[in-house]
Amino acid sequence: MSCSYKEKVLSYIRGIIEDEKEVVTIENHIDTCSECQALVEGYTQKSQEIVKIPQKEFDGDENKLKDRVVSYEKGTRRIIVFTIVGLILGWFSYCYFIDQFILTKIILAIPYKSNEMIHNILHSHRGILEYYYGHKSNEFFPQSIIATFLTERITPVLIGGAIYGSLAYFTGNKKVFTLRKYMKFAAIWCLIILVWVGGTFLLNSYTVHNNNELKNISGYGLNSETRGSYYYNDYMENIFDMLDTAFYEGDYPKLLESVERNEKNEHYIEFYFGNLHSGYMIAIINPVDKYLITDNRKTYEISESFAKFVLEYINTENLKEGKNILRYRNGVYYR
What we know:
Layout: H1 6-13, H2 20-32, H3 34-52, H4 62-91, H5 102-122, H6 128-133, H7 145-170, H8 179-212, E1 217-223, E2 228-232, H9 237-247, E3 254-256, E4 267-273, E5 279-286, E6 291-293, E7 299-301, H10 304-314, E8 327-329, E9 332-334
Antiparallel strand pairs: 1-2, 1-4, 3-7, 4-5, 5-6, 6-7, 8-9
Helix pairs in contact: 1-3, 2-3, 4-7, 5-7, 7-8, 9-10
């Protein structure tokens, strides 16, 4: 059991007790209690060890030390401000092509063009237009509107923060902000950008897979030699429902191993996917031979009903709801 005088002995050692009678009582107790004697000896030994620690006075220039601290605080604020400015410039960087003032045009273009460079290195989307007809799309992810938006608007924000934050390092006090500290700053930003870009690629891959499976179509874009028309599930619903019913009639569309192409009767057809039309794909359709080639070159056989609708559109100068279009109801086509 611990001695009940322990707390009083500690107060005595620290010189807190001033009452002489109580001091005498504690000292008499220490003489007769081995536990309190050990406590006093241990405390005394620790005090002696502390005294032996060498005392070293600061022999540098106090003004220089103070200046260094001030420089570090100012430099840190400067880096934060540059980084925030870079984030803002990155958000507006897509506007660089309409800016007429060369200096601001260059400043705005840096994050956006850096973003384009990254994507040109990492991938090349050779879609239907470029693959067959040589027309190149400028979108980052032609089949995913959401992935394209995130890449076009958010990725330059991150790149802008990294670039202009780095500029604050390069133009700051080299004695305070060393190369080692900058490498840590750069590594963190590279990791953030890498994770973000990887996320946009995953989102695009998921969208492309679903698009080429022809799932959840929410809009059809029919095209002829001279015009194009679009029919969505939330606009022009009657024609959309008619086209959608024909497109998924029976077991159609049916995946084919290969198809003997007849380019003379091929036309563009466009698809939108999802409730927000966030997926998009340009495909090739031959309504005469009833086949469809997706952006990833998957080949499908289409229903005769859908092929007839497409042929009717191609051969009609003016497509209007209720006029000049084959209607399908209860297995019967009519005008």
